[in-house]
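hi! just following up on the protien thing from before. the input was this:
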Amino acid sequence: MATDVTESAEIGEINKYNFRTETTGGFKSQKGINADIVNQISDIKNEPDWMREFRLKSLEIFESRPMPKWGGDIDLDFQDIFYYLKPTNGQRKTWDRSRRRALHPR
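and the predicted 3d structure came back as:
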C-alpha cells in the first residue's frame, strides 16, 4: 500500500504544472479491426487503391495467423483497440503555430 501512496504523490507532483495538450478528435474509428474499418480509414485518408488493397491483404494475413503460444499470457483483445484517431480537422503541416503557443502562452 505504501507504494500506491508514493506513486500517487509522484503523479500529483508531475500534474501540478498542468502539462498537457488539449485536443479534440476530428475522427475516431470504432473499436476493433475488420475490412469495413480498413476501408473507412482508407476513405478518410483519401488513399490510393493500391494502399487500400495492401492494407486489406495485410489484415487478411494478420487474421490468418494464430496468437503465439510462447511467452506470457497477455490476453490481448484486438477488438478492444481504437486503430485510428485523426487528431483534428485542421491538422497542420508544420509545428510553427504550436511552437509559438508553447513559447508564448496566453
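The beta strands are 27-28, 85-86.
Residues 23-103 form one domain.
cheers
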